Amino acid sequence: MQGEATITTHLSGYNAHGRPDPETKQVSSSHTIVVGAGIVGVSAAYYLAKRGHRVTLIDKGDLASGVSFGSAGIIAIGHPPLPRPGLVKQVLKWMLDGGSPLYVPPRFDLAMARWFWEFRRACTEAHFQYSMDMLARLGREAKVCFEQIMSDEAMSSVYHRDGWLEIFRTEEGLAEGLRHAELLERYEFDVEILDGNELHRRQPAFKDGVVGAVMFSDSSFMDPHQFLIALAKRAEAHGAVIRTNAEMMEVLVREGRFVGVRLLSGQRLEADTLVLATGIWTTALARKIGFMVPMQAGKGYHRNITLPKPCLTIASVLAETHVAVTPLPDMLRLSGTVEFSGINHHMVQKRLDMLTAAARHYLQGIGETQTVSEWCGLRPCTADGLPVVGWAPRLAGVFVATGHARLGFTLGPVTGKLVSECILDGEPSIDITPMRVDRFGSRRRWGPTAPRVPAPSAAG
What's the pLDDT at 429? Predict the structure, then answer.
């Protein structure tokens, strides 16, 4: 094993702040460890390895065993952030209703109280526009990334370029959908309005009570697990080392600089850069090594059912219920809800049943289907609705990529590309300042520490 003095020499391509020197561009002798084998971590490993960089991806569990496994698989280009004007009053109504799209079970939790206070502050028109500007830029780049991956890696068979539909049963809902469409059109995304007759002509699986839909043509969908496994294989083909069931127990730091990790097995892995793509577990891990990434776990559910007849052929969101419906090769996935109940994988039967109940209102044949499987996952949600992508403050050589909430699958590849650019080029191809890690301020601002959580596993 090399000593720490040798590790220091590996950092010759980095500046005094522990970031790659732009004059050096790529440090061919350096090594990056990525923690978290969800869509963000696998994408970071893929882009780093594709450029010839030495990268090791580790995860406590298996590939795609976290949020990335169970997402709706919709690549929702231009999707707005969760905090938005007027949402606070709606959230307060939903909070105590176990049947609402967003549910907060009553409990005493000062960290969550602080999070909701910051969330309330983010529900302004000014912040919404600020966030949309960032997410729109990311969305456009996300589409480029997916298209490039499909072309370069011959993976187009898993990719459906049909867009996705937002479906409405009420005129009030459709009016809100038209406002959403106008917003995306202002950002130059392609949107098409369908009345009930046109929707039924294209997708006869919907019931007659559906009044219309909005088609987001820039977007796409796929089986998220199938895509992630395929991308991980391509990362390995480019030279990445992927180690599953390898639990990180300690981040090793010397003189304020990251130098490696120690695994549960006792093995030490030396590296120059650490990428934390650890989802909701990043909050506790970051606190342990000296900085703040305050997030709450937004639990999402899915229920896979047998294919109804007739079955829709395009991913859709049932607008009034906020439930997504995704056709997969041998089943139909119903997914959705946001439950802020802490870091746990307890599934509430009522919330699973909500998914099927919602689908019955919109789709034919749901009553004749059978449940194939059920799942829940923990989305990492920041209070201001923006991801966390950037270098850690006060600790050289650590890069953070998390906090994508419901947009992890959409923004995973572009985030991985930005990670590779920051590490290998010294700066990203787009301005990521709104997502910087140090925007959260001090520990005091965010109150007491949260309870201990398990070591990081796969996260999107």
Answer: 96
